Amino acid sequence: MTSARDPDASDPGGDLDVDAVSKLEFDRRPETDQSFENALAKARDGDRLTVDDGIELITTGTDVAGIDPERKEAVLEIADRRRAETVGEEVTFVANLNNNVTTACNTGCLFCNFKDSAHAFEAESGIDHPGFTKTPAESRRIVSDALEFGISEVCSVSGLHPAFALNGEHHDILESYADPEREVNYKPPAAYATDPGTYREQMAAMSVDDVHLHSMTPEEAYHAKRGTDWSYEDVYRELEAAGLDSAPGTAAEILVDEVRDVICPGKIRTDDWVAAMEGAMAAGLDTTATIMYGHVENAAHRVEHLQVVRDLQDRTGGITEFVPLSFVHENTPLAEHGVVDGGASDAEDELMIAVSRLFLDNVAHVQSSWVKYGDEKALKLLNCGADDFMGTILSEEITKRAGGEYGEYRSFEDYVDMVNAIGRIPVERSTDYRTRHPIDPDDGPYGPTIGPRADGTPMLAGRDRELGRSGSVNADD
Ligand SMILES: C[S@@+](CC[C@H](N)C(=O)[O-])C[C@H]1O[C@@H](n2cnc3c(N)ncnc32)[C@H](O)[C@@H]1O
Ligand SMILES: Nc1c(NC[C@H](O)[C@H](O)[C@H](O)CO)[nH]c(=O)[nH]c1=O
Ligand SMILES: N[C@@H](Cc1ccc(O)cc1)C(=O)O
Ligand code: SF4
């Protein structure tokens, strides 16, 4: 166990030494022995890029201050061409539901405003809080309702509720610690107003019919094995038996420990993240990989991160897509403490997507996330190297709570209109990309066709605009 967490962290971020952070001096700096021109030539020729090459491209040259617009256009153009050569003109998206089970979490990541202190969820706390915990029965009902709208995937990521355990045996092990709250971040379900059930029970509950269940990030897998000598593979096999189909590679943030020490000191380190991903893939699950950028890290950290992902994919081959997540800063502890006063610029977002496409020569798909970028920029990014356009999601809490304003739903009609507008081909995909249904823009109305109950009927027919503006199919308690 490599994680150093503080189970008492009831005000995550409250102890931040702002002076120390604002004077951040990282060991790793964006300095190279490469020139921008040489790096660009290698990218154009399709040679495998080194970290130095990647740094030159993502900074448009370490010899110039700031981003050079002409050099940037050259990088974006090569990335867009690489996208066209490797995956063609299709723009994919998935009919999915986002179902977060609980916001209770004491990990204290300083970029996150999704979590609420777990103490507030205790039956006796008397503390009013905006968070929620869903029982397995509630999760099942939410998934069943969404199946009627035609979804093929449930994406579920959650806070690390102290009462969460993998299964009954895990509860027994966690209870046997002399001081479980301090030693293994555990309190029994009876202490809380709502019992989240076990991870096994939540997976079984959300795995309705043949829906694809995409859940259990490396951080959640760590939580599901804390205090035991189980391997990540053991944990993922158990979850798979309960209905899990693939794992989201979030919790990646920046896979360089000097950055993790600042933004998420309570989280697993880079090595553990990689071990969890390898465990998931050893258990036979597909994964995705992410990067969350645009906070305190520098260009060298971004490219080092890409190297970790590329090495992992060389060993496993199980990463279906790479998802750059641009940091949403507004309501986060990092912004509230004055450590950051904004996120990535448009140019940085474009270069992040482009260099992901060029550097990750072994990952087929790069996502443009509308929930992070908004429609206009997300469409632009589909011309900078991205080919996937995320999913319908129906409900969103993480970005919204951080201050993001791009809503929580996109209909098939929205997708067809937007993808058509940039002259590409809209394609509904399964999570693993193995099933792909191109959509004929002249043959509306458009609805999902891949999910177990999908019959081409538009999702939420008639109610979609209303939902996109204000609501959610998820009931928060
Ligand atoms: C909120 S966590 C939930 C799952 C689990 N607790 C974990 O950390 O893996 C999922 C991911 O959301 C992303 N995230 C959280 N806050 C964000 C923010 N303010 N801006 C962008 N992405 C954010 C991070 O990449 C994080 O790993
Ligand atoms: N499924 C995808 C999501 N889902 C929403 C996330 O769970 C979350 O609310 C937020 O994005 C966390 O940072 N988001 C994506 O960006 N891409 C997806 O494929
Ligand atoms: N669906 C993507 C992206 C994602 C992003 C943030 C999340 O919290 C969850 C998922 C994944 O599988 O990784
Ligand atoms: S990112 Fe995940 S682990 Fe970190 S505080 Fe938020 S919910 Fe908890």
Automatic annotation (TrEMBL):
[4Fe-4S] cluster binds at C105, C109, C112. PROSITE patterns: LISH, RADICAL_SAM. The FO synthase complex consists of two subunits, CofG and CofH. Residues 432-477 are annotated as: Disordered. Coiled coil: none annotated. Keywords: 4Fe-4S, Iron, Iron-sulfur, Metal-binding, S-adenosyl-L-methionine, Transferase. Its EC number is 2.5.1.147. This is 5-amino-6-(D-ribitylamino)uracil--L-tyrosine 4-hydroxyphenyl transferase. Catalyzes the radical-mediated synthesis of 5-amino-5-(4-hydroxybenzyl)-6-(D-ribitylimino)-5,6-dihydrouracil from 5-amino-6-(D-ribitylamino)uracil and L-tyrosine. It is an enzyme of class 2 (transferase).
